[in-house]
Amino acid sequence: MNSQSETITINSNSVLLHCQQRTPSGRRCRLAVSDPDSGLCSKHFADRQKELDQADLAPVLIGDVQEFRDAVAINHSLGELYKLQARNKITPRRAAVMAYTASLLLRTLPAIAQGNSVKPGQERIELDFSDWSDPVDGSGIRGPACYRRAVGAGRLPDPRKASS
What we know:
Layout: H1 2-17, H2 42-54, H3 58-62, H4 71-86, H5 92-117, H6 145-152, H7 159-163
Helix pairs in contact: 4-5
């Protein structure tokens, strides 16, 4: 019984020594395995990596999103990227580049939001405090104290400069 179990062990190990790629006729490649995780020789492993690099993943990653203008769309794309990587449908290098690009997109969202808050040609609200009495603080800016402080801090345009 010992010799039989040894024979089985030898046979199972010999199967792992040869490439697992099969031809259309069912024959298996005879080259030695170079990547134990995939069970493929160097030639077939390179072919598989090339297929993974060239795969068109846009429909899966992007879906119906036109622009990545919010965190939800970017998060959805990252989730799909994670699924592809877990299924070994994308190379780790390609996934890392895409994840880095997504992180750059996420970092630019606050700047995009700030840029979108004031658009060129947008109507501005004009505050008219001409009927207010002169302030007692000597600033010469008519209006409530909060308005005067905002003008003094430079957060609102100075009405004294606009009128001159």
